[in-house]
Amino acid sequence: MPEVQPPPTAAGPDRTPPCALVIFGASGDLTERKLLPALAQLAAEEVLPRELVLVGVARTQLSDDDFRARCRKTMSSSAPSVERLIAGARYVAGAYDDPATFTALDELLRQIDETYGTAGNRVYYLATPQHLFGPIAVRLGAAGLDKSPTGGFVRLVIEKPFGWDEESARRLYGDISSVFAEEQVFRIDHYLAKETVQNLLAVRFANAIFEPIWNRTWVDNVQITVAESIGVENRGGFYETAGAMRDIVQNHVLQVLSLFLMEPPTSFHPEAIRDEKLKLLRAIRPFKDEEDVARRAVRGQYARGGTREQPLPGYREEPGVDPVSSVETFVALRLHIDNWRWAGVPVYVRTGKRLPQRITEVAIEFQRPPQLPLFPSTDLEPDALLLQVAPSEGLSIRFGAKTPGRSFAIRKASMDFAYREGAAPDHAEAYERVIFDALVGDPTLFIRADEVGRSWRIVDPVIAHWARSAEPIPLYQAGTWGPREAKELISVDWRRWRHSGR
Ligand code: BG6
After folding, report:
1. Among 286, 310, 349, 414, which lies 20 to 30 A Cα-Cα from 374?
2. Which of 30, 34, 158, 191 to mutate to test the pocket of ligand 1 (most atoms within 8 A of CB)?
3. Span 53-60, mean pLDDT?
4. What predicted TM-score, i.e. pTM, was given to this entire model?
5. Domains of the chain by start residue, with CATH
6. What is the pLDDT of residue 419?
C-alpha cells in the first residue's frame, strides 16, 4: 500500500498560512499573559501573514475597539506587523452556551474570509477553564463551525488539564471527538514546547555516542525534578481542585519522561514520535494496591517557613485555600519501566512548590565503576548526564577527575553546554512555538488522546489512595526539599536525590 503522506523531516515551514485565529476566553488571564505577547512576538518576527486575523470571543462586553485597546496594552511593540495584527482584530461578545454567540461568530468568520482572504481556515484556541472545553466544542459543531465553508483547515487547540481523572478525560474526549477528528485537535503541554525539552530529541537522535549507553547496562537510575520556589500564588482556588499530581506529574513530568526514555522513532513524523511515547507510558508499571502506593509514592504540603526577615506562608494560609486542606503541593514517585531497555532501572520523579530553588532537570546517573581500588576518595557521586530545562538551559556531563597535585584524590568535574550560546537570537518561547505549530498544523509537540488516557491511568490509583487515606498529609517547611518521606523513598534504595541541600 502506498504511504498516505511522506514523513516530514524535522524542518518545517517558516511562515504560517492565512487563517482566522479565534481565541475563546479572550478577556482572560491566559490570553493576556501568554497568548497576546506570544502573538506579538510572532508578528514582529514576520512569520504571520497579512491574512492572519485575530478574533476574540468572551462573555465580557467589549467592542472591537475595546479589544484592540487591550491587545495594544499587552502586545507592546512598535513593529508595523504587530500594529497591523491589532488593527485587524475583531471581537464577539457572548455566552459560551448561547447559540447566538456561535451564529455571530460564523457570520463574522465568513465576512473575514471575504475581506482578508483567510481562505476558510480557522484555528479555535480555547483559553477558557477546562470545564468549558466540551460544551464549546459541541456548540461549534452545532453551528457547523467545525468545518470550513471552503474546504480549508479547522483546528481546535486546548491546554491541560484534560479532565481530572481517566473517567472525566474520557467524557471530555467523547464531547470533543463527537465534533472534531483527532487530527484536528491540538492538546498543549507547554513543557513539550520548551527549547531544551526538544533538545532532548536532538541529543538522543542526532548523536551516536549516547545511544549505546542509554539502557539498563549503563544507567543506574533516572531522576526527574520539577522544583519551583514559588507557592501557589493567586491560584489557590484552582490548585485546591488539582494538587501537584494533576498539575505537574500527570502531564509535564510524564511527557518529559516519555520523550527521554522512549525507543528511537522510525522517523520524525509526529505519529511516529507519539507512538513511541505512548509505548513508553504503557510500559510504566501500574501502582498495584495501597501497599504499593505507600511504598512508591510520597505526598507533602508546604507549611509556614522561610526566615525571620522573609517569612513564607503555609499552603493552608494562601488565598483561596481551605485552612484544613490536605491537597498535595509536593509529590515524589519511584516508577519502573517494564521494557527491555529499562528493566531494573528506577525512575525517581519529584515535583513541588516552595522548594529551595527553581530547577527543572532530567538526570541519568550511570553505574559506578566495578572497582575503585586506586583512589583514596571513593565517596564519589555517580557519573551523570543532566539535561537542564530551568533556570539554566543546557546539558552537563558530570564525572570524576584527578585533583591536581601529588595525591590521587578524585574531584567532581563537569563538562557543560549552555544551550543559548552561539544560538541565533530568534529562539521561540513555549507559547510562540505552540501557536506557530498549531497554525502550521504540526502536531508533534501536542499530546494525543491516547497519551492523555494512559497518563491518567498511571496517576489515578495514587490520587484515589491519598483521597481515601486517613493519614494526615506529611508537611514540609516552605523553602525545604519536601517531607522527610521523600528522602526515605530514595534512600531505601541506597541512592540520593541530586538536589537535596546536602
Ligand atoms: C503549569 C502549572 O502547567 O506549569 C503551574 O499549572 C506551574 O502550577 C507551571 O507553575 C510551571 O511551568 P514553568 O514553565 O514555569 O516551569
Report:
1. 414
2. 191
3. 97
4. 0.92
5. 19-188 (3.40.50.720), 192-491 (3.30.360.10)
6. 87
